[in-house]
Amino acid sequence: MAKRVTIRDVAKKTGLSISTVSLVVNNKGNVGEETRMKVLKAIEELGYYPARSAKNLASRKTWNLGFILTEEHFSRSEPFYTKIFIGTELESRKYNYYVLLTTIPSQFSKSSIPRFLLENNVDGIIFAGKVNQKYVRYVEELGLSYIFVDYDLPGKKVAAVMIDNVQGGEIATEHLISLGYKKIAFIGGDIEHPSIRGRLEGYKKALEKSGINCDENLCVVDEPDTRMVNGYRACEKLFAKFKPDAIFAANDAMAIGCVRFLKEKKIKIPDEVAIVGFDDIEACIHIEPRLTTIRVDKEELGIIAVRRLVEMINSPEVGIIRTYVPVELVIRESCGAKLKGKVSVPDKDIYAQLPNGEM
Amino acid sequence: MAKRVTIRDVAKKTGLSISTVSLVVNNKGNVGEETRMKVLKAIEELGYYPARSAKNLASRKTWNLGFILTEEHFSRSEPFYTKIFIGTELESRKYNYYVLLTTIPSQFSKSSIPRFLLENNVDGIIFAGKVNQKYVRYVEELGLSYIFVDYDLPGKKVAAVMIDNVQGGEIATEHLISLGYKKIAFIGGDIEHPSIRGRLEGYKKALEKSGINCDENLCVVDEPDTRMVNGYRACEKLFAKFKPDAIFAANDAMAIGCVRFLKEKKIKIPDEVAIVGFDDIEACIHIEPRLTTIRVDKEELGIIAVRRLVEMINSPEVGIIRTYVPVELVIRESCGAKLKGKVSVPDKDIYAQLPNGEM
DNA sequence: TAAAATTAGTAAAACGTTTTAATTGTTTAC
DNA sequence: GTAAACAATTAAAACGTTTTACTAATTTTA
């Protein structure tokens, strides 16, 4: 193993002090242009790279960001939070940070406190998705900056990067309205979830804009959860009372649940009932018909979170910022846009969108 | 922010030297039982936790492991490598390591060398999937321990954790044989890929065992790639010459490609042609019919990789170890086991397996 | 033109551990 | 009964940076 090049080697080579070299490396203090160049040249020639651990110890910073999410969120099949993490990874490079990922149980316990908090091994925290409040309090007591992604701590004003759920609900509903559907149902699952609330709000907003009366009977929001089964059940309840001509499901999982129900009842999609989902999960292009949905740029959520968090670390006075990431309508088959000739979605194009497959 | 508790505080409280405290913390050297207890008690009471950066600097170790994979692998939709990463994260906690994840381009360039290598910020490397050899050489020159997961560096004996591809190919083929199929085709895509080779080997082994002659015309392995499209094309080629009664596709992506082709040609699955895939990706339960496949425990791959790597770091004399992780047959609908009454797969059960949905 | 301010550079302390070598007292070996 | 080995503990060096406070030289201000 080759001997490590240290700041001392650079100092020796240039005939300067290590302080000066350090100042050049960190773009700090007053250094003459000539010396600066000399140092840079020597660094280049020697292949010097500051040692992390020494830098960390001396600067009293760790240059690590903690990424915390619950075990359930991480081990779910759809890589929603994984993609957010990817975003943070990509962005944090620019600021010379590393992202340490860890999972926590949904219940707080002393033994489950992330190691990087105990060891003071992070400068800031990203909470992804719903997290037990006690962890947040713990982080707060440590005096660390933190930011939420895709979750909003109820009853507290915190920095957060959110999906623009209202806009998404509005776009989805407007799309269905523009295709001529009149009786548009909303499958929301669990109304307690802040994201579902937002999507419902957007749905109502769109209806109102078009002068359509919002029939509360068309909104099913009394499920305990927002999973596929809940979509199935909600759809069952809905059809026991009414038959809508379109459904806006507040997420793709529930939309797929609806598809399953309708298929079992031999109700044709989109001919008899059109469906639009939300999230654009992988499964959307595997089920038949392919699901029209609202796409969320998950990586973007992570990217923005890092950007904000680094700002907060560097200048604690920035205050609490909330960012809403815009969403996008992805038109496939389940909404009937193709049938109505409004949009052409050639199979070849969809084919090209298909995932790159395994291995 | 509360003042950090340091080793000095523990030393002061116990009346011992910091050296002794350090020895207790690290379970090293000769420390009397009585003093050990005293130190442990003081640590508990003060809430002392060694500072990472100081520990790292002094011990000349980073307690970080690097997880490297190509951008393509990471940004793919199916979270294959993500799950491997999760496994490494879980396991590394036990050894007090952190895992730093980074992606690299498929081509080597000086500017794309992972930061943690330049900064000497890792003690060992996990390469996941196919990686440009030059990166491996670079790591080797740094004198770092490294291990491969799901890839085998051609022409070089390296530590690796592999899927037991041969076993998987054998199990899949045996399953089809046991269901009475006689003309079983193999869709392999790209024979250059080591995993595909292994799966083909297993396929041939199973045929041989049952005394079935292996018809080379039934093996399509001349595609440039192993993606869904290649499965589609391979299937096209196959049916231009022969009509098998079953297909073993060397991965699920290609299996899905086959399904698409057969559906277009109105060939019924599994009635006319049965299909078995490999990998058990998410899409298997979304397509119709649901895909019978070989399941790979991806997290397990990561877990074992960390275990081995830590061994290698601690005792460089362990030598090169290769581990094969066993696979498992998952029977769904595409193989016709249900039709033939061999296995019952109630829809309810499959339903219960479905992903937890979004949000 | 003297005082003040600015610029360029540096010596030395600090960061919180691990590790090496030394010290002291006690036991074992012959 | 002495030398060697061992056990328990510690002082001090080392790890490679950043940062503070200082000096010296130059420029600006009034």
Give your account of this protein's structure.
Two copies of one chain form a homodimer. Chain A has helices at 7-14, 18-25, 33-46, 52-59, 71-75, 80-94, 115-118, 133-141, 165-178, 194-209, 228-241, 252-264, 298-314, 347-353; strands spanning 64-70, 98-104, 124-128, 145-149, 160-163, 184-187, 219-220, 246-249, 274-276, 293-295, 322-325, 328-330. By secondary structure, the first copy, chain A, is an alpha/beta fold. In chain A, the strands form three sheets. The first copy, chain A, has a six-stranded parallel β-sheet, sandwiched between helices. In chain A, helix 1 (7-14) packs across helix 3, helix 9 (165-178) runs parallel beside helix 10 (194-209) and helix 11 crosses helix 12 (252-264). The structure holds a DNA duplex (30 and 30 nucleotides).
Name the features:
alpha/beta, homodimer, DNA-binding, 12 strands, 4-stranded parallel sheet
Short description:
With 359 residues, chain A is an alpha/beta fold. The first copy, chain A, has helices spanning 7-14, 18-25, 33-46, 52-59, 71-75, 80-94, 115-118, 133-141, 165-178, 194-209, 228-241, 252-264, 298-314, 347-353; strands at 64-70, 98-104, 124-128, 145-149, 160-163, 184-187, 219-220, 246-249, 274-276, 293-295, 322-325, 328-330.
